[in-house]
Design a protein that fits this description.
10 helices; alpha+beta; about 220 residues; four-stranded mixed β-sheet; single chain; 4 strands
Amino acid sequence: NTNFKNIREVCDRNQITSLDRAFLDLGFSSLQIDDPARGLSFMHDGPLDMRLDTSIALTASDIVNQWDEEALADLFYVYGDEHKSRQIARAIATERRHKSFLRTTELADTIARAVGRRGRIHPATRIFQALRIAVNDELGALRTGLDRIWELLSPGGILSVISFHSGEDRIVKNKFRDLAHLGEGMLLIKKPIVPGRDEARANPRSRSAKLRAIQKI
């Protein structure tokens, strides 16, 4: 039970000196999403937490209530691809002057009032995604994890990654491309494998999944 970035420590503890295969699934459990106590979804009221590992200190509530308006706007734009990030950050900053955000539905309602509903996607969706990524340092952990796993991978070994977010996939794509360009690896998949129509219909949460793989030379 640890982070990808700690792969070196895990291998050392278990006297593992090299890897033949490594597979990173960057998704997280649907049970976690559906657990109100985690605060990962606004579909159920719960504490504004979002920690996948409850031993870490930072929570989504800390970010929403303590970061300044500009930092929030940048977070929502970079990690959530939210084009109304500044409008949402302004609404949050205004609201928290009167009361701290402690519950998921409180934040979701404030966002909805600030920008209105647009189609089938709730306007808080990308904001919750950005907060979750920041709380768990998901992109930083991915960069570190990829580097350390590549160091441990044996010649001929294969590293595969399935991502669910454009920021994750961009990091994996660029890392694999750079390794191939340097002659250290060979891309096994030129374009990412994505779920077919039937799979996406049966499991909607798979829709954004992308699988990439590279072999160490």
